[in-house]
């Protein structure tokens, strides 16, 4: 059929650039290591042997935003912390993905107060929201798998739709 | 419930400062004295240095907003003596139009951040504080959020996240 069909021996696969890059990206997501509140404890337990996030290829937590490609916003974002979160996000290299973990990061949670940002999506684009207070580790693993599917399918990221116009 | 006989701590305070101790009580076993704000540093120094009192541990300092009352604000000091194992609570009222009280940092240096917190949350000014600026909220925040007339639903723009 195609021009390159049966032109090479059986141990050579032909594919597209995008498919290879997306495969590489999704197989090795490096999350950024930072937690803002109690959700971070649950994020840590996702890494432990019981849940073992490394089975899904996302266990290399980086201390520097410049080495990370996924941000897990684990906990309450306060108005004082918001510029810091935004700055960390801006320092991450593209392509990057964001998980808003827990109801605080989603919408402020129970803290409808002067001090708490009502959802981290007011300052940075969020790809996957994880509800719960705190979410269980399975939810975090599930959302990472969701992000991997998003990358694999080459679907649009929240960043491409940012800022959201209502 | 109310002890007719003032405790050792309160008795010494009344004996030394007289009319500047506005009121005292020992309800539920907690010695409490309301004092004149003008003499707060003197009173605190006395509490720290008197050999029978020795309040060497300043545990807490908070503000209270009694909206509608006059004077409106109150500064509350919680003191403990590691030596004598006794506690006292000192209160001083400050009015809204002049919410100033002397800083007790010369007496207990650890009161620094507590006073900054009371300033941040209530707008109470501590005279001669070396670094009286916000400690919990960010610098651009307007108003003092724990004042009873701060609107509960008021939201201020998030500062510093612009592109």
Outline the structure in words.
The complex is a heterodimer of chains A (166) and B (163). Chain A has 166 residues and is α/β, with parallel strands linked by helices. Chain A has a single domain, classed as Rossmann fold (3-Layer(aba) Sandwich), CATH 3.40.50. Chain A is 31% helix and 8% strand. Chain A contains five helices and three strands; from the N terminus they run ααβαβαβα. In chain A, α4 links the parallel β2 and β3 (128-130). Chain A starts with 16 loop residues before the first helix and ends in a 14-residue tail after the last helix. The mean pLDDT of chain A is 87. Chain B has a single domain (8-127), classed as Beta Polymerase, domain 2 (2-Layer Sandwich). Chain B is 19% helix and 25% strand. Chain B contains three helices and seven strands; from the N terminus they run αββαββββαβ. Chain B has helices at residues 8-17, 40-49, 112-122; strands spanning 21-25, 32-35, 57-65, 73-80, 87-94, 100-102, 125-127. In chain B, β6 (100-102), α3 and β7 (125-127) form a beta-alpha-beta unit. The termini of chain B are far apart. In chain B, 27% of the residues are buried. The model of chain B has no long low-confidence stretch (mean pLDDT 89). The chains are: A alpha/beta (166), B alpha/beta (163). At the A-B interface, α3 of A face loops of B.
């Amino acid at each position: 059929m195609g021009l390159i069909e049966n032109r090479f021996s059986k141990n050579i696969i032909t594919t597209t650039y995008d498919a290879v890059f997306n495969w590489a990206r999704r197989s090795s997501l490096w999350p950024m290591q930072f937690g803002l509140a109690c959700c971070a404890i649950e994020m840590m337990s996702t890494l432990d042997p019981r849940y073992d996030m490394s089975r899904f290829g996302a266990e290399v937590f980086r201390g520097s935003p410049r080495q990370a490609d996924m941000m897990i916003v684990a906990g309450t974002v306060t108005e004082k912390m918001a510029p810091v979160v935004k700055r960390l996000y801006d320092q991450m290299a593209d392509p990057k993905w964001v998980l808003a973990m827990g109801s605080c990061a989603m919408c402020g949670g129970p803290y409808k107060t002067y001090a708490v940002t009502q959802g981290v999506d007011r300052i940075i684009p969020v790809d996957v929201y994880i509800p719960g207070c705190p979410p269980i580790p399975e939810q975090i693993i599930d959302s990472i798998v969701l992000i991997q599917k998003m990358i694999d399918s080459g679907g649009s990221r929240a960043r491409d739709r940012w800022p959201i116009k209502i | 419930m109310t002890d007719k006989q003032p405790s050792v701590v309160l008795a010494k305070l009344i004996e030394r400062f007289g009319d500047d101790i506005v009121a005292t009580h020992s309800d539920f076993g907690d010695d409490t004295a309301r004092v004149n704000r003008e003499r707060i540093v003197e009173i605190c120094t006395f509490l720290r240095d008197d050999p029978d009192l020795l309040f060497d541990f300043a545990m807490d300092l908070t503000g209270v907003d009694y909206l509608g009352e006059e004077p409106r604000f109150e500064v509350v000091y919680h003191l403990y003596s590691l030596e004598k194992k006794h506690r006292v609570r000192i209160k001083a009222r400050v009015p809204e139009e002049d919410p100033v009280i002397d800083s007790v940092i010369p007496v207990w240096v650890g009161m620094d951040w507590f006073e900054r917190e009371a300033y941040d949350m209530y707008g109470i000014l501590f005279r001669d504080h070396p670094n009286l600026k916000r400690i919990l909220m960010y610098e651009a925040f307007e108003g003092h959020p724990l004042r009873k007339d701060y609107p509960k639903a008021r939201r201020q723009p998030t500062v510093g996240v612009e592109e």
